[in-house]
Each structure stands twice: as C-alpha cells, then as structure tokens.
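Form P-L/3: holo structure prediction, ligand 2-acetamido-2-deoxy-beta-D-glucopyranose.
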Amino acid sequence: MLPPQRIAGRVRRAFHWRTASPWTTCVRVACCSHLRFMWFALMVLTVLCVALQMLGVVRQARSAKVLKLVSEQLVRMPAEIHRPTKRNNWENLWSVSAAIAEEPVDQHPFIQRRDESGNPRSEEKREYNRIQDTVLEDIRKKLTSTTKAAPPTVANKQWLGQEFPNQPQRPAFPKRTPEIKKPPQSDNNNDKYTVKSQADNTVTCQPKNHIVFLKTHKTASSTILNILYRYGESHNLTFALPLNMHSQLFYPAFFAAHFVEGVRTRSVKEFHILCNHMRFNSQEVRKVMPKDTFYFSILRNPVAMMESLFVYYKAIPAFHAVKSLEEFLIQGGRSYNASVPNNHYARNILTFDFGLDNTAPESDTELDRRSAEIIAAMERDFSLILISEYFDESLVLLKHALCWSLDDVSSFRLNSRSERSRRPLSTETAERVKEWNSLDWRLYQHFNDTFWKRIDSTLGRATLQQEVELLKAKRRNLEQMCLQEGGAVDPAQVQDSSLKPFQYGAAVIQGYNLRLELNNDTRQLCQRLITPELQYTSALYTKQFPQLAAARAAAAKKIAASRNTTTHRAVKRNIETNVHTAMSNS
Ligand SMILES: *[C@@H]1O[C@H](CO)[C@@H](O)[C@H](O)[C@H]1NC(C)=O
Ligand SMILES: *[C@@H]1O[C@H](CO)[C@@H](O)[C@H](O)[C@H]1NC(C)=O
Ligand SMILES: *[C@@H]1O[C@H](CO)[C@@H](O)[C@H](O)[C@H]1NC(C)=O
Ligand SMILES: *[C@@H]1O[C@H](CO)[C@@H](O)[C@H](O)[C@H]1NC(C)=O
Ligand SMILES: *[C@@H]1O[C@H](CO)[C@@H](O)[C@H](O)[C@H]1NC(C)=O
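OUTPUT (holo model):
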C-alpha cells in the first residue's frame, strides 16, 4: 500500500493537471459549487483508499482459502441491517447480543448481492467479513481438535452452479431411502393426553422438546420462531443454529447437517430445536435431530402469500421489471425464468421450501400426480401442518401437539407488515395466482382440510374456540403489561433501535416499544416477546457459543477501529486537498 502522503500528493498533482487542461472546464462546470466539489473529491479519495487497502490484503491472503471465502461471501448479507445506536442496560445476554447485532447478518444474501457490485462500502464489508471469518476459523481450530472445519461450500457450489430449481445432484422428488425411519406421528399421541379446556396446566402428557420447525416465507413463521426461542431459552434447550452466526441455514441451498454450528466440531451433544430458514432435506435433518423429533410447519393461502412475496421480494429478477402483480400474471410470468437464481420466490415457494420440485406442471394429469406426491412426502415427514389464516387456532393445536401450556404459545405478531402496504387482490387476480402456483394451491387446500379434520377429531370446535378466546385474552394482557402503545407501531417509532425489526423491500415491518416502568422480571419477559428474529438468533448464538461469539465481537471491534483510522486519514487528506485546490483556483 502506498503511504498516505504519496497518495495525497498524487491527487494534488492530478488536480493541478486537470485545472490546466481544456476539457476540465466541463468538470468544473459540473462541480460548480465548492460544496459539491468537496463532495466529489471526498468520494474519489474514499474509493481510492479502500481499493488500495483491499488490494494489499487480498494479495496477502491468496491461498487455498480463497475459493471457500468467496463462496461464503455469497451467502452473506451486506449492510442493510440497522446498527443499534442506543443500548439499554439489559442484563448479560441481551447486552452482549446488542453488540453482536451491530454486525451484518445474512438475510437476503442473493438479492442484495446484485446491488453491491461497484459499491466500495460493500467491498469494505466483504473484506470485513472475510477477516472475521478467518479469525473465527482460527478460534475454531483452537477450540476443537478437529482439523478441517470447512463451512458449507457444498451448498454454495450448488448455488453457484445456478442449478435452480432442479438441482440434478439432488433430485428433489421423489427421493427418500426406505430404510430411514419416519418421525413419530403426533397423531398417534393425540389420544394420550387429556385436555381440561380451561385450566391448561392440568395436561397429563409429556412436553415435547425435540422439535423441527420448517420456517416458510411470509407465513407468520417469525412469530412461531419467537415462541420456540422463548420456550427453548427458558427450558435450557439447545438450538441447532446456523454456522458462523448466520441467520439462516444457507437457504435456498438444500439443508445439510454441517450447516449447523457444533455439528462438525461435535461440540454439541444433543440438539433440541431446529427452526431457522432452510430448504428442507429430510435425510440431512435426521442426522442432526434425535429420532423422537416432532416436525411441523405452517402454510398460508398462496393468493395472499403471493401478494406479500411480491411486495417483499420486488427486487428478484422475476418481479423486478413489472409494475404490479397483476401485470406479472397477465403477462403469464414472461419475466419469470425458473433457472435464474432467486426466482424460486416467484412460483410455488411452499413446495420449494419443503425441498421438493417447484417447477410448474405442464398438464392437469401431471398436476394431479405431482401434487399427490408432494402431499404424501409432507405427510410422511411432518406431524403437523399449521395454517396461517387460522393463526390462533394453529397455536392452540400446536400447544396440544407439543403438550405445552397456553402461556408457552402466547405471543405478539412479529415481522408483520403494516396495513398500509397491503393490497387486496381482485377475484380475477386471485384465480390467476392459483393457476400460477398450482402446486402450492393444491397442497394448501389439502392441509387446510386436514387441519380442520384434525381439530374435529381431537379437540372439537367448541373447545378450540374456548382456548382461542383464552389465548386472545392472554395476549391482550401481555400487550397491556408490556407495550407502551398497547400494540405494534411503525419502525420509525420504535425507540430502542436495537429492537427495530429488519426492513426489506417495499414492506413496512412493524415493531414495538416497551413500557418504561417495568420491573426486571417483567422486562425480561416483555423483551423476549418483542425481540425480532435476527437479534434473537444472535443472542442465542452468543449464549450457546460464548467463545465463538466473543471472538467475532472482538474481530468486529478491531476492524471497526481500523476502518475508523482510515476514514479519518482520508477526511484529513481531503480537507488538505480542497484547501489547496481552492487556493490555486482563486
Ligand atoms: C434489575 O437489574 C439490574 C441490572 O441487572 C440490577 O442492577 C438491579 O439490581 C435489578 N433490580 C431488581 C429490583 O432486581
Ligand atoms: C436452566 O439453567 C439454569 C442455569 O444453569 C438453572 O438455574 C435453571 O434452573 C435451568 N432451568 C431449567 C428449566 O432447567
Ligand atoms: C433462462 O436463464 C438461463 C440461465 O440464465 C438461460 O440460459 C436461458 O436462456 C433463459 N431462458 C429464457 C427463456 O430466457
Ligand atoms: C379452509 O377450511 C375452512 C374450514 O373448512 C373453509 O371454510 C375455508 O374455505 C378453507 N379455505 C380454503 C382456501 O379452501
Ligand atoms: C473513531 O474515531 C473517533 C474520533 O477520533 C473516536 O471518538 C471514536 O471512538 C472512534 N471509534 C472507534 C470505534 O474506534
């Protein structure tokens, strides 16, 4: 890297040269005001600085690691996540997690990757991530005797190969080796517990604590995640969390056991709950989770879901060029190319998330056959499928299936969109969506039916209704106890920025404010109820892997400090340059 004086000198010379040559009159006209000129100069210098620094470090680091690192960068999210400025004096875990939450977290890695190119800040970020990963890798080696802990390159290669959505190396459907055991069906257990409707703590069953929740998109699944997180945390259960503090299990790649922190290093003996975003792969999940694991998931009506997906994932190639969902559908999805990455959000995404082939069937007979296969596969792997449209009913059903209490499933709605960004669809559009997502529509109808059949054959609708009312009352109490405004508010009004939910696309995701005068215990409970997914995931990671998290935080601090000095030097140089040019111009 060049010493700063030399860079500054060069830039100064460059400006002298420019002022002397005739073509720069245009430049000068463009930079007519001093203010704008200073801006311009500042930008140029920053870009230059970062580029030079990158060059130096990258050259040093050229080794066998490069390929791995590059692929890792692809599954990482850049700066979109907010940086908490105000930090509460929360107790231990939470203050640590607040520090951690300042780091970038992966959420929609692929989409944002497109906007990144040519952005020096993201270059910097990539470098920052790279250094962090190197540090972490070292720590990991020290912590464990296991030698080669390679992060999930397999999955990333799959993605790099852009073999979406029909990855040939893993025929999505049908594929299951017969010798693999099924998870126990919860239906078999349904009659084992007796439920005394009003007092829900008099159940006589054994609470389940080996759980897999397949988190689906735009289906209120973040709220269920919060329920699982709180339950697991208060019962000292171990979560199968994504490697390297990622927030997702390298979705949309097929899940693989080694995506889970602690699997490859064998530092975790038993996992209880696996619930972060993944593309389901039954065989691999079984490698991580015990045999008696309870599998469940949630579906939403594909019509409402599509509207939601369109707003949230407007940046994906399929939606990018169209103005509205109507336009997209009327064109028959002309902008949709199934083999372009990220487009899986645009068609039969439920089927996709369950790890099955989501390409549209060509004919009605194919639709019949494939939807039957999909349903069979889901029923084989999952004991319970909830329905987002009947969310409270779903929670009651879940409570019974898991043998938990109503308090355990009481929750606030998280990651929910403000009404303002919702739009009702016409009947015509709704029909088009059903046709477009024909597989998802079939399986939604099927599981909506079985959902109600299950209620009828177990609880009965009257009991269900009673418990739903109880649940609603509990939620109202919690809202009054915890929330300043008694309900959700727009993100701009969230006062504690470390509790601000992740914002993405054109959707406005609402958050909450806690009341100020809470005692410690209540505050803890309330805090957990409103903690957004990304922040909570980091907090749990920190709790489960304190050494790895501390190493990460230390690396982040170090890098932030070095970045600080660089910026300061650049600013100082800029001021010098500007003073100089201002003098020579006058
Ligand atoms: C509440 O928590 C804070 C910080 O952990 C502690 O200093 C304080 O003593 C606690 N107050 C009560 C009443 O427990
Ligand atoms: C969880 O662990 C903490 C600390 O080890 C302990 O005090 C608490 O009783 C445990 N809770 C449960 C439900 O096992
Ligand atoms: C879809 O994308 C693939 C890969 O990017 C490309 O090869 C193919 O030509 C595209 N198909 C259409 C119909 O545009
Ligand atoms: C889901 O099931 C309920 C109860 O049977 C029914 O009223 C509703 O129309 C169903 N929804 C769909 C989209 O089929
Ligand atoms: C960055 O520099 C400023 C001014 O020198 C200093 O106040 C601040 O603490 C520094 N930040 C970090 C993270 O080192």
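COMMENT: The chain has two domains: 44-83+92-151, 200-565.
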